[in-house]
Write a structure and sequence with these properties.
- With 733 residues, this protein is an alpha/beta fold.
- It contains 19 helices and 30 strands.
- It has a nine-stranded mixed sheet with strand order 14-13-15-16-24-23-22-19-20. Strands 3-6-7-8-9-10-11-12 form an eight-stranded parallel barrel, surrounded by five helices.
- Helix 17 links the parallel strand 15 and strand 16.
- The longest helix has 22 residues.
């Protein structure tokens, strides 16, 4: 049973089931991470990884600052285990309530640096967590919400009271779980995806159970891994995905899909802009990236946004941040420099400490962006619920891919098993994972040049087809009823291990009216990453997909070069291209099919033998778009056929674009004078909230205006968005 929390009586309910979190009148929880730090100390070593803390306040003082400077309505406390410095430990113990004041560190004279210098800390260790509870209660008094991350070691008499704070949201165990590079599993001669998934999920489930036993309230995760869906399957109450892997809208699509699947009622984001915007801090558009992330999450349906760092201290030592001017040490590694060594460079550090603390212009810029966005939310409110999504990209069962910043990196190893991948290259990301690059390019494409200077863009992505979810098939959990209720089209993309249970769900989804895109390898039962040399016996029902779509796979078919349209007597093919367009060169492998569906229609075929490559196969109220390839769709990401353009999406992207057009709803975007979203729409992030008749449009380009045609309920209107503009349009029925 999930924990329940009650909030203000004036609040607006965010969920009818799942986590019982009620939102404030503005409809969104927005805030900062607050750290328990002692000032003016070195925190890192190495020629690159280094840094110093500047002026710092106590967590309680930062709480006051949040309220005073209009910094949202939420505080996330990073207490760790009370800190290792005397002043940090005193904050944890709330010794000020006993009239005890611990002086700040004196690095120059090597004083006030060790807890052993202050026996009073040990004498009052029974107060562990008193400062934590005091901060949560102060949030109550200031009308702020609160949550915690990486907190343990509180005495029961304080820990048992935290859930009595009405504005307390719960505990976040953070990024504790991942498949680490070269983990212990990599030493195995063989590995199985099902065993890896079970082991991972068992670990998370044990953490969740332990946190519940501690009485910390709702249990949340700030995973930054693509396999956060296995943390959801392990029973977390809420996901706050950290946007440091994959693009922003890509991360939102997965978070929103999990929200719907697991009935959370709301989802959130952990924004690490300081570390992962990857824009130099002296760039004139640097700070707009902060506001952009807030806007993109707001538009996508996030109801909780936490800015991890930057507002109160400078953590980043790269990207031309102020930390670059601080003294550093030749030693490599992530450990903290011993104080006696750090003291030798204190005089040099003191010249720049004012540039990295909370009073610095650097930190004020983060706080300005937060305040401006919070004002926007208070003025306009937040759309209730989630935006319309008519398409879901399926994240298959046992898809343990490591997704990088462009969706695909062939040097990543599945489940982090690099040692194993060196012996068995199937465990490097390959054809299955390359499908996610196609998905990103199709549904969450990067803005072409949002900074106007060719700078690499990691954050700014459009949604030419509107909001699209990623739905997880982890442990085959989705039901046909869930899929039919939420999605008109379901597109299989990357790895999938099929089962009889999953096959039944897919049959019911199609018969009930869904449109399904799926290929032969998606219907394999393999768990060993054998995605090329499998046989029909590895397929569910030994390749007999008669019930699903009226096709039997008899075995491996012919190798081929080109995919083309079969309708040479028409100007345009089903896919929306001139029929003379050739897709390739693929060097792919077809399946040998027996087709019994009397309504089968060939949409794409292999050019030499007329063998079907893409079949439309009606069944019941729906239809399957069967991709007749022995290889995963990712094998067709590179596409340079006659008529191809430099920015083309390739065959699979073109197929998905056509399917998106078939299922679009009462609101959609096109380029002006066109029937499809094109280059201009790829620069726009948009969402439709039908219950509020509200269309949100965001130009993700900081420099150039973009003009699109908005279509809502049969009405067309040309709209020009200024650079970085978030536009609200209401269409009453």
């Amino acid at each position: 049973m999930r924990a329940k929390i009650g909030l203000l009586a004036v609040a607006v309910s965010a969920a009818a089931f799942g986590v019982d979190v009620e939102l404030p009148p503005c409809g969104m929880l927005l805030g900062h991470g607050v750290y328990n730090r002692a000032p003016n100390l070195n925190w890192g070593r190495g020629t690159v990884y280094h840094g110093w803390y500047g002026d710092t306040l106590s967590p309680l003082e930062y709480t006051e600052l949040v309220a005073r400077e209009n910094q949202g309505n939420l505080v996330q406390y990073w207490w760790f285990s009370g800190g290792r410095r005397p002043q940090e430990r005193a904050n944890w113990l709330a010794l000020e309530d006993l009239g005890i004041k611990i002086p700040p560190p004196d690095l120059k004279n090597l004083k006030n640096l060790s807890c052993d210098e202050f026996p009073v800390l040990e004498q009052h260790k029974d107060r562990a967590g008193a400062g934590m509870l005091k901060a949560l209660r102060r949030c109550e008094e200031l009308g702020l919400y609160s949550t915690m991350i990486y907190m343990w070691g509180a005495a029961p008499r304080y820990a048992n009271q935290i859930t009595n704070c009405p504005h307390y949201l719960g505990y976040d165990f953070g990024e504790r779980f991942t498949f680490r590079l070269d983990s212990a599993n990599a030493t195995k001669k063989e590995a199985r995806l099902d065993e890896l998934a079970k082991h991972f999920t068992d670990q998370v489930r044990a953490e969740v159970a332990n946190d519940r036993a501690r009485g910390v309230g709702n249990v949340m995760t700030t995973s930054s891994n693509f396999y956060v869906d296995y943390e959801a399957a392990a029973g977390v109450d809420l996901t706050l995905f950290e946007d440091c892997t994959g693009e922003i809208n890509f991360a939102s699509a997965l978070s929103r899909g999990l929200c719907r699947q697991y009935g959370y009622g709301l989802w959130g984001a952990h924004i690490a802009n300081e570390h992962y915007a990857w824009v130099s801090f002296d760039h004139p558009l640097r700070w707009k990236t902060v506001g952009l992330q807030f806007k993109m999450k707001y538009l996508a349906g996030a109801k909780i946004c936490i800015l991890e760092s930057g507002a109160f201290e400078c953590q980043q030592s790269g990207q031309n941040s102020p930390q670059k001017y601080m003294p550093h040490y030749e030693e490599c590694g992530l450990s903290i420099v011993p104080d006696k060594i750090a003291a030798t460079k204190y005089d040099e550090a003191a010249k720049h400490l004012h540039d990295v603390g909370w009073k610095s212009d650097y930190c004020r810029n983060f706080r300005r962006e937060m305040s401006e966005f919070y004002d926007y939310v208070k003025k306009h409110g937040t759309p209730k619920g989630q935006p319309e999504t008519r398409i879901a990209v399926a994240k298959g069962n046992y898809d343990l891919a490591v997704i990088d910043y462009d969706g695909y990196n062939p040097y990543n190893a599945v489940a982090g098993l690099h040692d194993l991948a060196e012996r068995d290259p199937r465990w490097f990301c390959g054809m299955p994972e390359n499908g996610w690059k196609i998905a990103c390019d199709t549904f969450w494409p990067k803005a072409k040049d949002p900074f106007g200077d060719g700078l690499y863009n990691r954050l700014n992505t459009g949604t030419p087809h509107g909001q699209v979810d990623i739905v997880s098939f982890a442990f085959d959990q989705p039901t046909a009823d869930f899929l039919l209720k939420n999605y008109k089209a379901l597109l299989f993309c990357g790895w999938n291990t099929c089962s009889e249970k999953q096959y039944r769900v897919l049959c019911d989804y199609v018969k009930g009216g869904g449109k399904l895109f799926i290929g032969i390898p998606h219907l394999s039962t393999d768990v060993t990453r054998n995605y090329c040399a499998y046989g029909t016996n590895d397929l569910v029902r030994a390749g007999d997909f008669t019930e699903l779509c009226g096709v039997k796979v008899r075995g491996r078919g012919k190798r081929f070069y080109w995919g083309v349209s079969p309708f040479y007597d028409k100007k345009d093919s089903w896919i929306g291209q001139d029929v003379s367009r050739w897709y390739g060169v693929f060097r792919g492998l077809l399946g040998d099919l027996e087709i019994s569906n009397p309504r089968a229609q060939t949409l794409i075929l292999e050019h030499e033998s007329d063998t079907p490559m893409l079949l439309k196969l009606p069944n019941g109220k729906g239809e399957t778009y069967f991709f007749n390839s022995w290889y995963y769709p990712g094998a067709y990401a590179l596409e340079h056929g006659p008529g191809a353009k430099n920015d083309n999406l390739g065959l699979v992207g073109a197929i998905w674009t056509r399917l998106a057009k078939e299922v679009r709803g009462e609101a959609y975007l096109t380029d002006v004078g066109a029937d499809d979203p094109g280059a201009e729409c790829r620069e726009v992030d948009w969402a439709w909230y039908p219950d509020e008749d509200l269309l949100l449009l965001l130009n993700v380009d900081f420099v150039h205006p973009h003009t699109v045609e908005v279509h809502v309920r049969g009405r067309a209107e040309r709209v020009t968005l200024a650079p970085y503009e978030l536009k609200r349009m209401t269409f009453k029925k």
